[in-house]
Specification:
By secondary structure, this protein is of the alpha+beta class. It folds into two domains: 87 residues, no CATH class; 148 residues, no CATH class. Helix content is 20%, strand content 27%. It contains six helices and twelve strands. The protein is globular, with a radius of gyration of 18 Å. The two termini are 17 Å apart.
Length: 265
Amino acid sequence: MLTTNRITANRITANRITANRITANRIAAERITANRLTVNSAADELLATTDGQELFSVLVACAIPEDITLEATINGTTLEFAGEIGLTPQWLHHPLDRKGQGWVSACVFAKINDHEVALNFSMRGPHPALKTDFDEREVFSVEEGAFYGNMFTPLDQPILWIACRGRGQAAGQTGLRDRVCATPDPEHPGLTQCGFFFAGDCGDFSEEFACDHFSKNGEFYRGCHASPVDREHHSQGGSSSGYDGGDDQDHSHVFPQVITTYVIP
């Protein structure tokens, strides 16, 4: 799935309260036409600001298929939010469950770029909406990293955004100058340059790695952790990332909703 980075991390943190609220509701209300629906009023607060509108646009792009458009009228102006990837189309009619939160979060994290430079990249993962073909894999051949976690965490806990460094990023390959969210920040150990929790290197190209498996057919990681794991899949003596594990039931084990990203050399 080809897409473009389009949002900064601070826009998510500034709008996380309102973003969390809409997960408890369906994202769409009435149907206008076969492929056009109105936005549920639960999103009105998020849509009241331009930053909130940008975040909502990314949420819709990640969750809803490309043949669906959501429409909202704000202060007399009609706004359109186009679907793109379609990771959780069920959110149109039902609250977003934990699995859906994981997929939408991974997608949003992959789209973050604090350099605010538009850059096409390839998303891959164990989800039908993320399928790729031979040509895409040939053109977008530099492995940046993998993204996972949950942006919809309770407000008394930090956003659980995690990234591990891919083979291309670790090797310093070209094409990644403006994609730094999977790159460790030397000034802030345990974090990436976007402020994500840094889980280490993704795969077994490193002595210690964060993900359990790499699918060579689709070129993506499966089952990733918040820190490197040993070959028996047990955490190695505490987290090397800035994430301390928290007390949420889903925070201490493997993350199954993982998106691996690639760029052009």
